[in-house]
Each structure stands twice: as structure tokens, then as C-alpha cells.
Design brief:
This protein is of the alpha/beta class and 518 residues long. Helix content is 31%, strand content 10%. It starts with 8 loop residues before the first helix and ends in a 19-residue tail after the last helix. Residues 44-364 form the Aminotransferase class I/classII large domain.
């Protein structure tokens, strides 16, 4: 078929398009390993994706059914009841005060993460500071907006993403670290968006919202917090989340989303309202995850893994000192599927992410499976990544580039310093309603957390604060390619010297520390 000029219509149409080159969808690359794992006599235990497997809470199901007769268009802004419930939850659980008018429901937070740079008006020539290792969608959102993703403080940044607790590492940012980023951003008129979807899943540490007055001084100007009900309430299938923070930014997003028809169905809004008003089902779900976490952490430790960070969130971040794809292949041989750390950037090249989201009966088989796990390969620090090796064919040293300069080199036996078998800490775990670790720092390390978690006198030593690590400026210069340079929040260490002092809280804001949300 030809157009008026005689050129093929498809070519004529394509010539006016600005195509976005995106990376392969990571989980498509696990298919061969999933097939291998499924052939195990005990069957497959899929720990590769953080998708809930437990029932939707009864209180939520009842609310959904009661609102099923919903023939009209829903409100993009959300019902007043939903916005009130979200504001109440923020105050009750996070110590954050927002006006309900500054709450905007979103169709699952992944949708917002992928499109926030575009919806905020960023475009070609812009930059988005994203964490690493991290959920790939932060980078994808920058690319969809034709922006450059960078991995540290850099000129031209228009949006900074925070993620605490982190996916995949489970690390919680300290108040000082978050305050430093907020100070740096405000000095430059840069927006900070904080993805807080795991904030109610604290184990050895508790995360603090970017909107808490200890972080922002009581002013939400230039700040957005993103919250999901997928993990805390098992509502991944409902696509239910919300964004809140700076009222001016929320209004800007609302107007754009009205024109785009980005609205949550009315029955789902009713379900969200019920979920946000009820804390008991969250405590029940936390207990399920805590039990699975204990079983999986012990099994991994006995099998020679070190679990690093993992102080909060839905995952264990584990390594045995080999290429992440080699570990995926070894675990598939005993019927366990995990995500390679290479999915999350260069900093994850020797790690795997182990989700807590398999049924209890399947998780109970993991210790026996670990007893049959092949030993790690002899490779020292190498980079996992693409092309993906076939199942059963771990990459060789000749197929992989050398590690980045930020890596300090192997320790004895070819393993990175601090790597080795470890066990999860024992003793009382923080409860859902009772204080545990201090709210302004990390857990005080432990034999299972690796050398990178050793605290300083201030409560935490950032991984990049030491000899041989590049400066923030150097990390920003290198940031044109994913994975070069140290993890992004290593670069906050320098910022904290300038911006780490506590801001003066606005009158009327509570001075007490954030409530325990575990």
C-alpha cells in the first residue's frame, strides 16, 4: 500500500515517530530457567517476582462486592472517602499530615513510576536521577520521557527518585540521607519523588517517609510520596495506589490525568478505602511474610549465601560470590526460581533477589532443596548481564567485562570482602505495633548482613564513604551508562555534610520521631 507520495504508508508514518529504545523486559529472560526449575521432582517454587499469593483480605472483598453496582464514570481525583482514608493512614502509620485534597489515586504505582517524568513535563535534554541497584521502571520512565537516567547528583536533573525500603536490596535510607537529597533538590528547584510501596514491611529497620517533618521540615514543597496497596493488602490484581505530597504538583498531575482518562474503577476505590482504614489485615500479612522470611533466610545461610541489607521489604538480597546468572541456574536445578541481581544494575552482578511470595507449603520445601544445591563456581567478581546464558551454561570469565572501578577487588578465595556464609539474627523481631530499632538509623548490623552494613558512630556507613570510591561529581560524570559507578546512595554521603542538618519544623508539626510501622 502506498501513500500520496508513492512511499509505503508504513514508512511514511514511521518517519514522523520518535521511537524509544527500551531494554528487554527482564522477566521474559527467565523463561528457560523457569522451565528448568519446573522439571524438578518436587515442582517449582517461584521466588522471582514479588506478586502476592495470599488471599485478598475479607474486609476488602466485601467492600468491592458492595460497590459492584457502579455504572457511572469514576472520579479521577478519587472519592472523598478514599482520600480521607489515605490521609488518615498517612497520619496514623507514618506520622505524615496531608490534606485529603492532596491525595491522588493511581492505577497501580508502576503506571505512575513509568510516566511521572512525562507527566511532570520533563523531556528531551532532561535528566532523572534514579537509584541503583533498583527496580528497572525508574530508568524506563526516564527513557519514555526521552530523558537521560543518571545515577547520582548531576547538572540538569529535573526529578530525583528515592526508594526506601529498596527493591531489590531491602535497605532503608536514613533520615539524614533523605534530608540531604531533599536539601540538594530544593536548592536547585528539583522535584523529589519517593517510592514507599514497602514502607509497612520493616524487619530490622523502619523506613521513614520523605513527607515526614524530620525529613522535610513540615513543608511538602517539591516532594511526592508514592504508595501502593499491592504488597501490604494483596491488591496487586486491583491496581491500587496513590500519590501525595506537594498540593501544587498533585493538582498538576490531576489535570493531566483527567484529560488522559487515568481513573480507578469505582468498586476498586471502595476496596482501597476499606484497606486503608483497616490495620489488622496488614499485621496478619506481615506475620506470614516474617515466617517465610525466617525459613528462607536460614536455608540460604546454611547453603553458604550471605544476605546483605534486607532489613525491610519483600525480598532477601543474597550472594554466594558468583555471577548472578550462575546462581539463578544453580537454584533452578533444585526447582527454585529467583531473579538475578543483574536485572537491577551492575551493582547486583553477584546477587539474586529472593521474594517472600510463595505459598507456605512450597517455602517449607526450600531447606531440603538447598541441601542439594550445586556448589558455587570458581569465578571471582564478574558482571552478570546480557546476553543471557542458556540454562545450565553459566557465563565464563572471558564473556564478561571487568568489574567497575568502584569495586574494591576480591578478598580471600576470590570472593568480595565481607562475603561468606551468615545467619539471620535471632532474638525478638520488631512487632507491628511495638518499637524496635531506632527510627533514624539502620539496624546495627549482624553476621548475616555483610561488611557493607557496618554502622558508623552516626548509625550508618554509606558503602561509598571510603578510600577508592569516586566522588559524587565523578559518579555523576560516569552516569551515562547504567551500572557504572557505585550504588546511587553512596553519593549521598557528600550531600549530607551540607544538607544533613535538621530543618526547622513548621509550627503545629509533631516533634516526636516517626511512629513504629512494623
Amino acid at each position: 500500500m502506498s501513500g500520496p507520495t508513492g512511499a509505503p504508508t508504513s514508512s511514511r508514518l514511521a518517519s514522523g515517530r520518535a521511537r524509544v529504545r527500551l531494554p528487554d523486559f527482564p522477566w521474559d529472560l527467565l523463561a528457560q530457567y523457569k522451565e528448568k526449575a519446573a522439571q524438578h521432582p518436587y515442582g517449582l517454587v517461584d521466588l522471582s517476582v514479588g506478586t502476592p499469593v495470599d488471599p485478598v483480605p475479607a474486609v476488602v472483598q466485601h467492600a468491592l462486592a458492595a460497590a459492584a453496582d457502579s455504572p457511572g464514570y469514576p472520579l479521577t481525583w478519587g472519592t472523598p472517602e478514599l482520600r480521607d482514608a489515605a490521609a488518615g493512614w498517612l497520619a496514623r502509620r507514618l506520622g505524615v499530615l496531608v490534606d485529603p485534597s492532596a491525595v491522588l489515586p493511581v492505577i497501580g504505582t508502576k503506571e505512575l513510576v513509568a510516566h511521572l517524568p512525562s507527566q511532570l513535563g520533563l523531556g528531551p535534554g532532561g535528566r532523572v536521577w534514579v537509584p541503583t541497584p533498583a527496580y528497572p521502571t525508574y530508568e524506563v520512565g526516564a527513557l519514555l520521557a526521552h530523558c537521560e537516567p543518571v545515577y547520582g547528583p548531576a547538572d540538569g536533573v529535573g526529578l530525583v527518585w528515592l526508594n526506601s525500603p529498596s527493591n531489590p536490596t531491602g535497605r532503608c535510607l536514613t533520615v539524614d540521607e533523605m534530608r540531604a537529597v531533599v536539601g540538594w533538590a530544593r536548592e536547585r528547584g528539583v522535584i523529589v519523588a519517593s517510592d514507599e510501596c514497602y514502607i509497612e514491611l520493616g524487619w530490622e529497620a523502619r523506613a521513614v517517609s520523605v513527607l515526614h517533618p524530620d525529613v522535610c521540615g513540615g513543608s511538602h514543597e517539591g516532594l511526592l510520596a508514592v504508595h501502593s496497596l499491592s504488597k501490604r493488602s494483596n491488591l496487586a490484581g486491583y491496581r491500587a495506589g496513590f500519590v501525595t505530597g506537594d498540593p501544587a504538583l498533585v493538582r498538576e498531575l490531576l489535570e493531566l490525568r483527567k484529560h488522559s482518562g487515568l481513573m480507578i474503577p469505582g468498586p476498586v476505590q471502595a476496596a482501597m478505602t476499606a484497606a486503608l482504614a483497616d490495620d489488622m489485615h496488614v499485621a496478619d500479612q506481615r506475620a506470614r511474610y516474617a515466617n517465610r522470611r525466617a525459613v528462607l533466610a536460614a536455608a540460604l545461610a546454611v547453603a553458604g549465601f550471605t544476605i546483605e541489607n534486607s532489613e525491610a521489604g519483600l525480598y532477601l538480597w543474597a550472594t554466594r560470590g558468583e555471577d548472578s546468572w550462575a546462581t539463578v541456574d544453580a537454584l533452578a536445578s533444585v526447582g527454585v526460581l529467583v531473579a538475578p541481581g543483574a536485572f537491577y544494575g551492575e551493582a547486583g552482578r553477584q546477587h539474586v533477589r529472593v521474594a517472600l511470595t510463595a505459598p507456605d507449603a512450597q517455602v517449607a520445601t526450600v531447606p531440603e532443596r538447598m541441601a542439594m544445591l550445586p556448589p558455587p563456581g570458581p569465578s571471582g567478581p564478574r558482571t552478570g548481564g546480557y546476553p543471557v546464558p542458556a540454562a545450565g551454561q553459566a557465563p565464563t570469565a572471558g564473556q564478561r567485562p571487568d568489574p567497575p572501578v568502584a569495586y574494591g577487588g576480591p578478598g580471600p578465595g576470590g570472593q568480595p570482602p565481607g562475603y561468606g556464609p551468615g545467619v539471620p539474627r535471632t532474638g525478638g523481631q520488631p512487632g507491628y505495633d511495638h518499637p524496635g530499632q531506632p527510627g533514624h538509623g539502620h539496624a546495627q548490623g549482624g553476621p548475616w548482613m555483610g561488611a557493607g552494613s557496618a554502622p558508623s558512630a552516626q548509625g550508618h556507613t554509606p558503602h561509598g564513604a571510603g578510600p577508592g570510591h569516586p566522588s559524587a561529581q565523578e559518579a555523576g560524570r560516569r552516569a551515562g551508562q547504567r551500572g557504572q559507578g557505585p550504588p546511587v546512595f553512596d553519593n549521598i554521603a557528600g550531600l549530607a555534610d551540607t544538607y544533613g542538618a535538621a530543618p526547622a519544623a513548621e509550627a503545629g508539626w509533631p516533634a516526636e520521631p516517626p511512629p513504629d510501622i512494623r
